[in-house]
Amino acid sequence: MVWQIPENGLTLSLTEPVVILEGHSKRVGIVAWHPTARNVLLSAGCDNTIIIWNVGTGEALLNLDDIHSDMIYNVSWNRNGSLICTASKDKKVRVIDPRKQEIVAEKEKAHEGARPMRAIFLADGNVFTTGFSRMSERQLALWNPKNMEEPIALHEMDTSNGVLLPFYDPDTSIIYLCGKGDSSIRYFEITDESPYVHYLNTFSSKEPQRGMGYMPKRGLDVNKCEIARFFKLHERKCEPIIMTVPRKSDLFQDDLYPDTAGPEAALEAEEWFEGRNADPLLISLKHGYIPGKNRDLKVVKKNILDSKPTANKKCDLISVPKKTADAAGVQNEAKLDEILKEIKSIKDTICNQDERISKLEQQMAKIAA
């Protein structure tokens, strides 16, 4: 199910999805939006099948059902969305071209242990994996898809049995590893020089994590030099964990915040299915991220009989009219930015006043006690 979050967040519980995508025969455990094409969604289920959808039409356009013979642990798009990599229960890491529906590279027994692996693409095209050795030690490894015989780097960490979940920041080349059941987050920097994967530090807490979420870069507070924000899942609560780089200067720290991937799509779904690629459209965080006008997802059911399908191209079955330029919208863009900045300023003021009221109430409580 695909849900549309309203512009200013939820005020009521959502009960109606925008679209329901039906095609898997068993439970779906993985969903991942395409990094640069609008409304392209990948899903993978316990039927060992990967389906790539055009959410704008509600149609399944690519069905990779004969590549995996065992459970898929995770799927990751590369930087421009031309390839995906997967980790599977059969101990293989595969690099796949989804539009050609073929395996580009694969490594058997990337990690020899029986416990689950994870594999993610890095910005330079290399693949980073986590898994277990034959002796049940947790491992991390770096691979070049053009030659997967031997890893670029392989490190053994400890003998804990929690699966290591990798979260990657392409702007700073830092990988954060969160182990299920651990109470710590380790982080590493990926570089071009040996040992390639450099240990930086460990964040430790008292409570173990049941799961972890990761805030996109444009949601961070640049004024506080925040470089990562996690959402740690406990049994009954969700706790934000904020990582900052202390700086004495109040100026914008451009070394911490290079231009980052913005929310706008570089391609339409149809262009990607036809074979085009594009890198993410980058935005500056210098003035803090101000959301643009929210584009509501409208699902268009196209009559397949209107178009003439060619022999082997599934993607030709669906075509959606190109969006027309909205002249009035362009004229109002500057005004909209101005209003959004003013709203942000008012919200900041309200937050500050809330904090002040809370402190005064605490003081009153102490005096009363």
TrEMBL record:
The keyword Transport does not apply. GO terms for biological process: actin filament organization; neural crest cell migration. GO terms for molecular function: actin filament binding. Keywords: Repeat, WD repeat. WD repeats lie at residues 21-63, 65-106. The keyword Cell membrane does not apply. Belongs to the WD repeat coronin family. This is Coronin. The gene is CORO1C.
